[in-house]
Specification:
The protein is mainly alpha-helical and 556 residues long. Helix 22 packs across helix 23. The two termini are 106 Å apart.
Amino acid sequence: MKLDNLFLYILVFIAFTSFSQEKDTTLVALEKRLEKTTTDSLKVEALLSLGVYQLRRDFNKVETYANQINEILKKENLEYDINLQRAEVFQQLGIVYRKRAQYGKALKHYLDAQKIFLEYNDSLNLSSNYHNIGNVFKYQEEYRRSIGAFKKAIAINEKLGIPKKIGDNYNAISSTYRRIKKIDSASYFLEKAYEKYEEAGYEEGKYRVIANKAQILNLQNKYTEALSFQLEYLAYVEKKEIKESIATANYNLARTYNDLGQFDNAISHIDQSIAIAKKEKMGRRLAVSYKRKSLSYYKMKQFEQALEYYRKYARANDSVFNLQKAKEIREIELQYEFNQQKLKDSIQFAEEKKRISTIAENQELKKKWYFTLFLITLILTTGIIYYGVRYFKKIRKQNQLRQTKLTSQIEELHTEVSLKKEEVTDLMKETLIHLRTKEKLTNDLSKLSDQEEGTSLKSIIAELKADKLEDTKLILLKKNIETLNYEFLKRLKIKHPSLTKTDIEVCSFIKLGLSRKEIASLRKTSLEAIKSTRYRLKSKLNLTSKDSLDEYIRSL
């Protein structure tokens, strides 16, 4: 274990010595930009940029820049709108006060900035403001409100398409979930933050994820893994001279060394955190650092020193968290809500006054229009009625002509059907006569078995030949039967769709009252075949042996 730690120290020392040789080129460039400014507007913008850069490095300088900006903005007759610059100053000072655990002052400055950002529809700065308010609520342990503010910031940044800022929001939400021990949610948002930082190519963001990952590992009692991440993060922020992050990294390292039982290392790192917190007036960081040092002494069983630093923690913590400060924050929120409602009411009153004035001005105009509209409506109504009556008469005349034509067609069809019926009746009579003639001829032929009366046989053959000429009439009869029995056949097919063509033809003959022999003759088949067909028909028509097939068919 000691060899591993020694190796890590060597790596950190090498990294630190190499990093310290680099110059802060960004700060140099920003200071040169300030020197080259020629107008008040440009000077304010340069000071704001310096303030943003120093927010995590030197809070005292941020206050200095803010005071310089406020002096410029107090000038009369400035030739540009200063409100957005004032809002950005509010926002930067809010961050400084939050870092110093002056949460009431921080929230007031954030809300003052928010009012201006909303008025100017400055979505970019508004998203940052929601993020900062979320951090205030987080350190006040109002975690639901904290997450709600971060989500507002995410919604704006997703619309703007800024992956770096979305990464910051996800990182902050992850930290909030970690504080309430929701490890799965914390890990999920941390991964999303890393993805966004990767997309934006934001190196510092990725190191922040590494630091937060170490915090989660500590909660899971994976101290050795956490230690390597924390040392890597400390080396990076020392290289970049980010004082706030250096204090935080040392504080977190002290916790890990405490958990590993390496109390001397823990006290060494916590002293560095205390030094920075005192210099930068970071009240909350100072309080929790005292508590961490007290815990180290307690685990070393040096109870007197543990008590001393716990008392320091209690005093520092009371200056950060107490009922008076909580009341102050709530009063600031209520005052902001009241002012917003007052502004909303004044806007609504002005709009209502304008609406009433507009109604009064338009009242006379409406009266003039009413009479004009009445005349137009009357003219249109009269025209519609006139053309409507004409159209109705025209349609009625067309319908009468159509009805007359249909009546004539119906009468013609009735006449045609009557003629067909007469024709079929005649055909039926002729067919029955021929059927009976055939029957008689059959009987006569049977009597001629022992006779040789040539003349008599010739006459029978002649009659049979004559009878063959009537086959065309049989075909005509079948076709006409289908026509006249149309309604009967329609009902039969609907009720019994499984019937074959032969079945339907036999049913038609039964409907006409023909006997089995007559049906056999008409179909040129045997009597036995007709009997078999009738038997099969009873089954298909769902009739019992007692039911009469003829009666059932005639009843349809």
